[in-house]
Amino acid sequence: IDFRTKQKSPSSAPREVSAQAISSTSFTITWLPPLEDDVNGIITGYTVLIYEVDTNTTNTYNTTYANITLSSLHPYYSYQCYVAAITVAAGPFSDPVIIKTLQTA
């Protein structure tokens, strides 16, 4: 007999979230999925929340990959990055990773 439970949202956040500045206007964020026991279904994507500290604005992006590159950002601004995995719904967001875009030359 094969039993399957219904999917639910992940019970933990993506792991090892990191960010790397590429230029004065772009950076890449990478992460690993939540622990297998915490996924609670099939991951269909990720929500990435970016809080721009210097302007107090927030933007949300969706991706099916375990990374995202953001561009057209402000030079030498600080950003807080959060990532959540999605199954039937989004799970909890990761702790913030803080990144600063590079200075212009």
Provide an overview of this structure:
The chain has 1 helix and 7 strands; from the N terminus they run ββαβββββ. The protein is mainly β and 105 residues long. It has a 4-stranded antiparallel β-sheet, with no helix packed on it. Strand 3 and strand 4 form a beta hairpin. The termini are far apart.
Keywords:
single chain, 105 residues, mainly beta, 4-stranded antiparallel sheet, 3-stranded antiparallel sheet, 1 helix, elongated
Helices and strands in order, then pairings?
Elements: E1 15-21, E2 27-32, H1 36-39, E3 45-52, E4 57-63, E5 67-70, E6 78-86, E7 97-100
Antiparallel strand pairs: 1-2, 2-5, 3-4, 3-6, 6-7
Quick check: average pLDDT?
Answer: 94
Report, as a whole number of angstroms, the end-to-end distance: 65 Å
Structural class estimated from helices and strands: mainly beta
What is the general shape?
A: elongated
Roughly how much helix do the residues carry, as a percent range?
under 10%
Provide the β-strand percentage band. Answer: 35-45%
Radius of gyration from the alpha-carbon trace, in angstroms? 15 Å
> How can the largest sheet be summarized?
4 strands, antiparallel
Topology, number of strands: 7
Q: Main sheet: which strands, in order across?
A: 4-3-6-7
Helix-strand topology string: EEHEEEEE
Query: What is the count of DSSP helices, taking H or I runs of 4+ residues?
Result: 1
Extract low-pLDDT stretches: none
